[in-house]
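Dear Dr. L.,

I hope this message finds you well. Following up on our conversation about the binding site, I have prepared a predicted three-dimensional model of the protein together with fe (ii) ion. For your records, I am including the exact sequence and ligand specification that went into the calculation, followed by the structure tokens. Please feel free to forward this to your student if that is useful.
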Amino acid sequence: VERDAALRFERLASEIAAFDAGSPVPALMRKAAGDERRHEALCAGLAGSSMGTQGETRLAPRSFGPRAAALYDTVAACCIAETESVATVTSLLAADAEPRVRAVLHEIARDEVAHAQMGWAHLAREAAAIDVTFLSGFIPAMLAGTAGDLFTAAGPGQDLLRFGVLPASRKREIFVQTLREVVFPGLEQCGLSARPACEWLEANLTSTAVAGSTG
Ligand SMILES: [Fe+2]
Ligand SMILES: [Fe+2]
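The resulting structure of the complex is given below.
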């Protein structure tokens, strides 16, 4: 994940610089790519091994032009994924993790805050320059990509918490709370409608509750 994030930020830095030469975001993206490579080394150190990568791919639909695609990928990767990552890592820090896990979490948390902020900075800058409302209907697809099987799989329990793995139920709670308190208001502030995203969330919460009650 860290390695793919590094590749994605490097790509977005060049893409954004190509149509918005005055933007401070490409420099932030390049710094973030460096952070992600550091995270990769930290995680590999904890895991005792390094895993292969499939390489990052564009997240936006193929029909998008370059500027809209860069905005889509930035909102998905930074405003949603990195914002959620901050919430997850912060709640892991509040838990009773092992000291060497805590040290890594501290370093990652600090960087991820900056990665989320550069996404919001790009969205705000684009909202002032072009019509960004087309993105509202695509937020559910981005949320689905970030959530993965969060709403459908049983996931890990309490036992891996000290190694920096949140129980699935807690992770779901944090995901939902962060959407409602940070992501949705942030999107609305930039002129997008959070309504499709809210509907996506409610549908997922309903199906999770149904699955939970029937076993
Ligand atoms: Fe990271
Ligand atoms: Fe990050």
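In brief: The mean pLDDT is 92.

With kind regards,
A. P.
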